[in-house]
Task: inverse folding
């Protein structure tokens, strides 16, 4: 697993990248998706948020994090003085919804990774906030648990710089396990200390 380099996406600009994602047929998820979900937000944002994959709502609307978990993510971002229109770009590891929201297959993550890596290069954020185990493991190329990944600063080499990465719980998990919200707030504080 893990990012494999930007490959054929490496030289694309925003328009070319959007077009490539919209027409992507690199894996079988293109057969079942309604919409490829490119990402949303400020293309020059200081923060990027990286999630796992579109769910049913996102597949329908074509925008990441528009369901219940997305509302909690919006509240978390608001606490950091950001919103999906300003100060953040939100994208997923997978651009297309896996059937029944199953976890991404390794092959799907590998084929889709270049799109996210190119988005990271183009945004060139000061900070990446990764939500959830699946996204964290894919982006950081690790099998480590979320408990061991959160609460500290990782680095991702992209676009010629080392970008600080903070991992926290997925908002869908926090909806089921509200007692862990305190740890997520601490992770957000850590993120804000790296890029206010
Ligand atoms: N969960 C994610 O990880 N991403 C989305 O876009 C929606 C739900």
Result:
């Amino acid at each position: 697993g893990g990012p494999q380099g930007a490959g054929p996406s490496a030289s694309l600009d925003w328009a070319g990248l959007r077009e490539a994602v919209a027409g992507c047929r690199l894996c079988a998820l293109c057969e079942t998706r309604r919409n490829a979900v490119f990402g949303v937000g400020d293309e020059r944002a200081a923060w990027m948020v990286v999630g796992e994959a579109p769910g049913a709502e996102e597949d329908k609307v074509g925008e990441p994090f528009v369901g219940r978990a997305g509302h909690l993510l919006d509240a978390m971002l608001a606490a950091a003085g950001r919103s999906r229109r300003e100060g953040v770009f939100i994208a997923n590891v997978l651009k297309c919804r896996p059937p029944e929201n199953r976890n991404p297959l390794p092959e799907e993550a590998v084929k889709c990774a270049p799109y996210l890596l190119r988005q990271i290069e183009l945004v060139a954020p000061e900070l990446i906030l990764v939500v959830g185990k699946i996204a964290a493991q894919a982006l950081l190329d690790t099998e480590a648990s979320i408990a061991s990944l959160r609460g500290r600063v990782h680095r991702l080499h992209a676009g010629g710089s080392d970008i600080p990465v903070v991992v926290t719980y997925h908002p869908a998990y926090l909806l089921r396990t509200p007692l862990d919200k305190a740890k997520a707030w601490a992770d957000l504080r850590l993120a804000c200390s790296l890029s206010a």
